[in-house]
Queue: 2 jobs
Job 1
Amino acid sequence: MKETTKQSAPAGWQFWIDRGGTFTDIVAIDPDGRVVTRKLLSENPGRYTDAPLQGIRDILGIQADEPIPAESIDAVKMGTTVGTNALLEHKGEPTALVITSGFRDALRIAYQHRPDIFAMHIELPDPLYSHVVEVEERIDAHGSIVTPLDVCGSRQALAGLRNLGLTSVAIVLMHAYRYAEHEQVLAAMAKELGFTQISTSHEVSALMKLVGRGDTTVVDAYLSPILRGYVDRIASELGGTRLYFMQSNGGLVDATIFRGKDCILSGPAGGVVGAVATTTADGDQRIIGFDMGGTSTDVCHYCGELERT
């Protein structure tokens, strides 16, 4: 444990945590304004079940079997690579893709990007979804129903996925970014059938392009259950403490609405924001940031302005 100069005193303890794949780093400010730091292995099952929680306990001086005194903590703000690593290592939730009939392979074909334009054998990355179901439906770009939704057939298809043990589904229909009624019907069916993670493209990413919208929706369905389990475990031990997570866009969000599509760059984004804040305070406007972790390495370039969408 390391102590540095005093900062302005918060109402209670504040914890800022970077939970990486190899190490977890914690910076805390106590009620008197002193800065305390701690570094732990992210995975150490012989000593603790979760590194951020153990780090908080170490700093507060309480035993592993003691509850964390939530009343003494003002806020916990965390960046995590839990989603990033699950994506890189293909360890997300088994997910089914439900898509408009005729577009089974649309996300697989995608934009036909070829790193090697002359390669005779194209090796595509494995898709995140394990099963695909096509449903009879079609709404055109102006909102006219070309093919009514086959409610009975869709229910049977979703029931078949549940019988296979799947609980996560990504629903991606043509032109649903604007005309979402068929996706809404399918989502209601999926909920009735017991799916616990239902990602619909009009809610996740209301983009016109089917491939971009579909990919984002699949990622959300694939990672959200893993992420939700982790977030719920942290929140349950922190009681009513304010808990925030860093999103891919570099902004913090309340833990209750943190979801898979926003977590992929949660850890790296914190490094970018921190590097920019640190260097611009000294007047530097052009920097290259290099964040080498145990699982992945992230490089960023900043030239005086953060891009925003």
Job 2
Amino acid sequence: MTTLSRIAGSLGRTDALDRPRFTRGGHIITLLLSTWMIGGVFVDAWAHGQHLTETFFSPWHAMFYSGFFATAAWMLAPVLQARRSGQKALAAIPAGYGLGLVGVLVFGLGGVADMLWHTFLGIEIGIEALMSPPHFVLALGMVLVSTSPFRAAWAAWDADDAPSLGAFLPALLSLTLAVSVVGLVFYTLWGFSSAHFITTGAFERIIREFAPTERGLPLVREVTQQRGITNILVSNLLLLAPVLIMLRRWRLPFGTVTVFFTITAMLMAGMTGYFYLSVLLVPLIAGLVADRLIRRLDPSPQRVGQLRVFATVVPVVMWSLYFVATYIQWGVAWPITLWAGVILWAGASGLGLSLVAIPNSQTS
């Protein structure tokens, strides 16, 4: 076994009984610093979209890189303290934070690559900024760092498997921050901020602009509908998969899904604009319905049938509400065969996700 593999193995053993643990206050500090870092990334992404970034040394970069250095210093403190006292550095890493320190290294390497990329290849604009290789590395580092409190809660062998919402909040917010980073990368496919692909007025404007003749109308209509369908199914994946992951480990307290859906939607709306405020009520209501279903069905790996029902019903409710809200506010340009079919496929995709998250064999 190589030295690198031994280090990676040690960092990954977050369930070791002798591994120190951060207190609740320590996890909260991690969350606050991660929010500083990730909030800065959202601001920087907005600046890229507005063509405000012309150099690597910009105030937008300063926001999230300063957040990174503060987070890195906080997470490295136990290791440095252990080394000064003559203890083994790796043994001093708090449970759940091993991969977080790997994320610190990954983000640091991504930052260097980002500086070189901007210096020699220029500043990315729009979707190019989201797909930039250095930005991929930065996003990976942020996900690993921000999920440290979540991994710590998962690895806590003596923790309550049915916690209160207050006790579960650090783990929940940790996962929410990580999902927001992934959502940011795919923000152009975020359904709750792009309802214009299905509204009557916006669809008519798209037709006038891109299909001035009858000959081009079918193609524009099909491309627009395909984009709307993609937005819904991608958003469904981003919102439902983390909930199913949490259900593998915990009996979730009432309010968990409401908090997760609502905060994620608000963070994404901050990036894409709050124009569709009425549609933003949909994640809130869908979250309340999901929390009620959890209390009613008690879905879990031991109650896999109830979990399958939950994973199917929640998307059907959420995207039905989505179309209702859009219809009331602007009207829906899609025919019933299309929007009704999309709702059913969203439910089917939720069922499929549950099969991946918790296979039937796990209960045998």
